[in-house]
Write a structure and sequence with these properties.
Radius of gyration: 30 Å
Strand order of the largest sheet: 2-1-3-4-5
CATH class of the largest domain: Alpha Beta
Helix content: 40-55%
Largest sheet: 5 strands, parallel
Number of strands: 12
Strand content: 15-25%
Number of domains: 3
Number of helices: 11
Distance between the termini: 46 Å
Oligomer: single chain
Shape: elongated
Structural class: alpha/beta
CATH architecture of the largest domain: 2-Layer Sandwich
């Protein structure tokens, strides 16, 4: 449901409010009235108006002073203010603008002029709000990217420091080298995700379709995560059909999707649990891959949200951010004309299901 636009009218004469209400009646704005500047300042935080229509001449605080106070406050300064004045001298109008007013209208107020100026100011406010939302999103995005890149980088630095310790045992040496390699691969994958997401977002990604044994592709991806899984004492199980099938796909894209899903599954799974990767061949040449974990269930309201860019999974306390992985998976599989969804595991946890077509038949038809 779209929220109604809220307008605060500040005027010591209630008759003037009635006039403005009548002139703007057709637009169904949510109009609020304040008879004094002091009262209006108290109402601002409650009403949170999208626009203020402010009379210049008032007894306690005049419109110029009220305008200065509002525009000096960082919480309110983005609210457009239209000054209503009976003064027509250029110096008086200049005072309104110097006080921070965004526009002004002369008395007697004309319906067409009032509606035009209100629409203009609301359009500017909407543009400002959109820009502010974009800036907030960029700030959140930067925080998430730094968070996601810092984890593997920190592990590399820690492991490298341990390798400097004199007389380190060969077993620990090899273990830390494996961790450095694993963290480096994760870091490289996250950077690749960022680059690929840029191409996906702007429609610049071109699928590189080649023959690939899908069984072998999954075996390769599972092997990539053996060290990370062993470190958390998580068992990786690969269930493959007895039939080995060669398909025509973009194996880099599909491989990266599986890589992200496995990384997420390990991140959110408790120690001493298991993760199952399952491959199925469905009707109509559809390939289905399931990544099954036994961690915390994703709630129904989060099941779509987690595939949006830069969303935070606040309900998962042990890991605060999902970052770009699932958003990339969604964009990438859709570019491959496939789908991704998540369902609850009957036992406990989640089942991420990826489905896509083998391009062999399409190429044969062409």
């Amino acid at each position: 449901m779209t929220q109604k636009i809220s307008i605060l009218v500040i005027d010591d004469d209630p008759n003037n409010f009635d006039i403005i209400e009548g002139l703007l009646y057709d637009y169904r704005y949510d109009l609020h009235y304040s008879s004094s500047g002091k009262n209006a300042l108290c109402q601002l935080e409650i009403i949170k108006p999208d626009l203020i229509i402010l009379d210049v001449m008032m007894p306690d605080l005049d419109g110029i002073e009220i305008c200065k106070i509002i525009k000096a406050n960082s919480l309110w300064q983005s609210i457009p203010i239209i000054m209503v004045t009976a003064l027509n001298e250029k110096k008086d109008l200049a005072k309104c603008l110097e006080a921070g007013a965004d526009d002004f209208i002369s008395k007697p107020v004309n319906r067409a002029e009032l509606s035009a100026r209100v629409h203009s100011m609301l359009r500017i406010k909407k543009q400002y709000d959109s820009l502010q939302e974009l800036l907030n999103l960029r700030e959140e995005m930067t925080s998430i990217i730094v968070h996601d890149l810092r984890n593997p980088l920190t592990n590399i630095i820690l492991c490298a420091g341990i390798l400097k310790i004199p007389q380190i045992s060969p077993e620990i040496y090899l273990e830390k080298v494996d961790e450095i390699v694993s963290s480096g691969e994760i870091l490289n994958n996250q950077i690749d995700n960022l680059l690929q997401m840029g191409k996906l977002q702007y429609g610049q990604l071109i699928l590189s379709l080649k023959e690939k044994n899908i069984n072998q592709l999954l075996k390769s991806e599972i092997n990539t995560f053996k060290n990370a899984a062993n470190f958390c004492n998580i068992q990786l199980i690969l269930n493959l059909p007895s039939q080995e099938k060669t398909v025509i796909i973009d194996s880099q894209i599909i491989g990266r999707i599986i890589n992200n899903l496995l990384a997420n599954a390990i991140k959110f799974s408790p120690n001493d649990s298991k993760i199952i990767c399952e491959l199925n061949y469905l009707e109509n040449n559809i390939i289905q891959i399931k990544i099954i974990d036994f961690g915390n269930n994703i709630s129904e309201d989060k099941k779509q949200l987690i595939f949006e860019k830069y969303q935070i999974a606040s309900e998962m306390e042990e890991v605060q951010q999902l970052g770009l992985g699932l958003a990339f998976c969604k964009m990438a599989i859709e570019a491959h004309n496939g789908t991704i969804r998540v369902e609850n595991n009957a036992e406990k946890g989640n089942i991420f299901i990826v489905e896509f077509s083998d391009y062999s038949q399409k190429l044969e038809q062409n």
